[in-house]
Specification:
alpha+beta; 651 residues; 8-stranded mixed beta sheet; disordered N terminus; single chain
Length: 651
């Protein structure tokens, strides 16, 4: 992923004339007559223009940020109407009364009728406003008379009291963009950092041009970023969050200087963030709470001399006592005593409580702040990107992750939402650092099937599967929603088999190494064929991979797996009387470069017994888009090999 960091010191007494790429309402006939977009003929719609211009303006009591926006869209197919005919804007507001608001808007739909361009203006009835929660409102424009071939033209201004925050400008969307531009006119009192992110989109940053002083009375500098003919960011399988990879520019205010009055160094670092967290009563204050569980933790320290056992004991205590309310946060809302008594809390309340108790028991425990998968990557010191907390324990030379929000997580494992590459380890006071959050366990399944094959094609026998790591965690979670009978029916339908027995070991024991599933089953083998004195069938049966997860010919974004994966299947088939193995698939061993993965396949015969062994391992969790063709070919080889038949001969 390309990352360009630029620092702009907005300075100089300059002269500026804002230039819009298009004028609202001035639609050209080629735009109306367009039936497809040359750069992407399959696109159902295209952004002809995405434009914004931001500057600072003096208000009655303070300064504010004003952003003019202009969007022009072409509807090429009716399928795009649901996505593009409504503009939805989320507006932020704070408890102090500061807010974002729409101060001006115009919107029209243009259609071609009898060779003439006809405009249909959106009136007040097209506007929908809604309160989402205490911090967010929704402003929506429903465009009128939209149909295939329409051109939508929309302008709106956003007035923001949050002058220290510039909304990231996203160049790339799920539809192609013909022209995208962001312009800024900023007084010299502000110093901003800019982060250009994305894959393969050429940006053009214009040179600074002379400007007048702004209404704030300070010299200013103008800058802009332009991208053209931007391909659509289409959903691809095995991408944790598309927003991590779409081309965009992010802004970070680093300094505010008002000569003779104010100087604020707003540049963030891990240590600065740690200091702020320490001083925050909803984080550092909560973590330092005394007179809570002190006697109980002192007893635990005496009872469990081994630190690992002590950690496991306290983790299990919190895990069983508390219930997560599904709210992700790095800050607490209630006191630690209130949270414990309520037996309910958000992610910070539960996991900071856990850290507090561990520290009182003499364990080196610290919080880790992170951005969850759905929230996007955390790439730099920025508290605004963090929305989750879990615990980190250091015992000797090893560390252990803990998250007490889920009762099915063994010590040492994290939920999928936290596995997002990085986190900030908070060490107290003003000490913090960025750490890699590596999946602490794999997803592993070992299956052993012993089956008796009848001449008529029926199979009876047993299948035992051992689930380890995240495979065991997933199975335990399934039983939150399913009964044993429901699970039995689901598996019966999946295997197309009649299951007479189904039982589990260690399903409720998080300390067990694995969960063991044992089933007794029988089924008619539909894929078996007979010809004269021969029987042929696919030995992997319902245990094989039937579909390649990678179907597209090309790939734009990297391939991400949440954790490494290992699946091993051993199938033993007892042959019917009078039959021997005549032909079997050849053994195969194929590996991905750099130890990224491996597939093993072999068939062996012992008298009247056939034994098949397969092992599919994906070690790496991240592959570049350039590796896509190789990864796709690897899975094609797996599918082809597992589909090869065995031939039995009657003697």
């Amino acid at each position: 992923m390309a990352l360009i960091v630029a620092t702009c010191l907005f300075a100089g007494n300059q002269l500026f004339a804002q230039k819009h790429p298009v004028k609202f309402g001035k639609i050209e006939m080629p735009e109306m007559e367009m039936t497809s977009y040359e750069a992407d003929p399959d696109a159902d719609g295209v952004y002809l223009v995405k434009y914004a211009y931001s500057t600072y303006v003096s208000g009655t009591d303070d300064i504010y940020l004003l952003t003019e926006n202009h969007i022009r869209i072409k509807i090429l197919d009716a399928r795009a109407i649901d996505d593009l005919a409504t503009l939805s804007l989320r507006l932020y507001k704070s408890a102090s009364g500061k807010k974002e608001e729409i101060t001006l808007w115009k919107a029209s739909t243009f259609n071609l009728e009898n060779g003439e361009i006809v405009e249909v203006k959106a009136d007040k009835s097209a506007i929908f406003e809604e309160k989402i929660n205490s911090n967010n409102d929704l402003f929506r424009i429903n465009m009128p008379a939209v149909r295939e071939g329409s051109v939508l033209d929309i302008t709106y201004n956003v007035r923001s009291d949050f002058y220290g925050y510039l909304e990231p400008w996203v160049f790339q969307t799920e539809y192609p963009v013909k022209y995208s531009e962001i312009q800024l006119l900023i007084p010299e009192i502000f110093e901003w950092n800019f982060y250009l992110r994305g894959f393969g989109i050429p940006f053009t940053k214009s040179k600074s041009e002379p400007t007048n002083t702004t209404s704030l009375g300070y010299a200013s500098t103008y800058g802009n970023w332009i991208a053209e003919n931007i391909p659509a960011a289409k959903d691809e399988p095995y991408v944790s969050n598309m927003d991590n990879y779409v081309s965009r520019i992010e802004f970070d205010l680093s300094k505010l200087t008002i000569p003779g009055r104010v100087y604020r160094d707003l540049s963030a670092s891990w240590n600065v963030i740690s200091r702020n967290l320490t001083e925050d009563p909803e984080f550092g204050g909560y973590l330092r709470t005394k007179n809570f569980m002190e006697e109980e933790m002192a007893r635990a320290a005496t009872q469990f001399e081994n630190e690992t056992e002590r950690t496991d004991h306290i983790y299990a205590l919190v895990q069983e006592h508390m219930k997560w309310n599904e709210n992700k946060s790095i800050f607490t809302k209630n006191s630690i005593e209130t949270v414990w008594q309520a037996k309910n809390g958000n992610s910070a309340e539960i996991n900071l409580l856990l850290v507090n108790m561990l520290q009182k028991a003499g364990i080196q425990a610290f919080p880790v702040l992170c951005s969850t998968v759905e929230n996007g990557f955390m790439t730099r010191p920025d508290l605004n990107t963090m929305n989750y907390v879990f615990a980190y324990v250091q015992i000797g030379d090893k560390h252990i992750y803990l998250d007490a929000t889920d009762k099915h997580l063994p010590a040492g494992m994290l939920p999928r939402r936290s596995l997002n590459r990085t986190g900030m380890l908070y060490l107290g006071e003003d000490q913090g650092s960025m750490i890699d959050v590596v999946p602490p366990a794999t997803h592993k399944e070992n299956t052993l099937a012993i089956l008796n094959l009848s001449e008529d094609g029926s199979l009876q026998g047993s299948v035992k599967t051992q689930y380890y790591g995240y495979a065991a965690f997933t199975l335990r979670k399934e039983f939150e929603e399913q009964t044993l009978e429901e699970k039995k029916k689901e598996l019966s339908d999946e295997l197309k088999a009649e299951i007479s027995l189904m039982e589990y070991e260690n399903l409720d024991s998080l300390k067990a190494n694995s969960v063991v599933e044992t089933i007794q089953l029988s089924f008619d083998f539909q894929e078996m064929g007979q010809m004269a004195d021969r029987i042929y069938f696919t030995p992997m049966m319902q245990f094989r991979m039937e579909e390649n997860p990678f179907k597209d010919e090309t790939r734009m974004f990297p391939i991400e797996f949440p954790f490494s994966n290992e699946e091993q299947v051993v199938v033993t088939i007892n042959l019917p009387e009078g039959y021997v193995l005549e032909e079997a698939p050849k053994a195969l061993s194929v590996s991905l470069p750099e130890g990224g993965g491996k597939f093993l396949f072999k068939v062996e015969s012992f008298d009247k017994v056939i034994q098949l062994f397969t092992q599919l391992t994906i070690k790496k969790t991240y592959f570049n888009a350039e590796d896509y063709a190789l990864l796709k070919q690897f899975f094609e080889m797996v599918i082809a090999k597992e589909a090869e038949p065995i031939v039995l001969k009657k003697i």
